[in-house]
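Hi all, long-time lurker, first post. I run a small reading group and we've been trying to get comfortable going from sequence to structure in the token notation. Rather than ask abstract questions, I figured I'd post a concrete chain and ask someone more experienced to write out its structure so we can walk through it together at our next meeting. Sequence below, copied exactly:
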Amino acid sequence: MRALDIAELLALAALWGASFLFMRLGAGEFGPVALAGLRVAGAAALLLPLLAWRRQAAALGTHWRALLIVGALNSALPFALYAMAALAISAGLSAILNATAPLWGAVVAWLWLGDRPTRDRLVGLAVGFGGVAALAWDKASLRTTEAGVSPALAVAACLGATLCYGFAANYTRRMLEGVPPLAVAAGSQGAAALLLALPTAALWPATPPGAAAWAALAALALLCTGVAYVLYFRLILRLGAARAITVTFLIPVFGVLWGALLLDERPTASMAAGCAVILAGTALVTGALTLPRPRKP
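-- Answer (accepted) --
Happy to help. Here is the structure in token form:
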């Protein structure tokens, strides 16, 4: 990869890693649903004009049903689930659990599309979910926070979000193949904004959020969602999807880093070990790492 590609890959990982920080800063005042609703609305406001400028808006009318489903599975539901998790667990832990998305993608492809996994993928699934089980056991407290969310429920919410990503990735591959990537990004954000409009209005916080929460929301919507999508699809066009997805391995690093620097979160040894195991499993599932082949006699 060229220096520009590496710089954009690192910038994308930094932005997506920072999304867990900004959710921690905004979820308490906005609430999970309102934060997610405003996040996708802000991202759509940035991406839809860009789509029109690129003269690709016609794809929205042709594929609106599929985009509605992708908007629900890839943005509306997971963003709300991650925002709920932010009420009880650290930004770093949420970022680590986010790395399980390729694992769920492989499981969904196997069970839904009949994409039988190779030996490496099967081992990767076992290793990755073993790491998840160890992390979940370590954080499985049922004691709720002031917001009414327990760490165990927060971990389950993160895994529910990544399961949504797994469905969305396979559905997109099946139903939106050949559609311009920017149209998928902008259309799905617009669809998610429509889906969350009424829930956001109904669950609007009684106490007006403060300036810091609004600033966190703006960064979350415009930088971590809108700009991040543009970077991601630029990388896909230049490097291909297989290389662009390597950002998955960098997001936990930045998630833990931002949490430690700006929220005074302290990573634990169990988090580091769990992260290493999950990433090893993810590497096997995505093909970034392969097992030694047995030698022929």
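A couple of things your group might point at:
DSSP finds 13 helices and no strands in the chain.
The CA atoms of residues 96 and 275 lie 6 Å apart.
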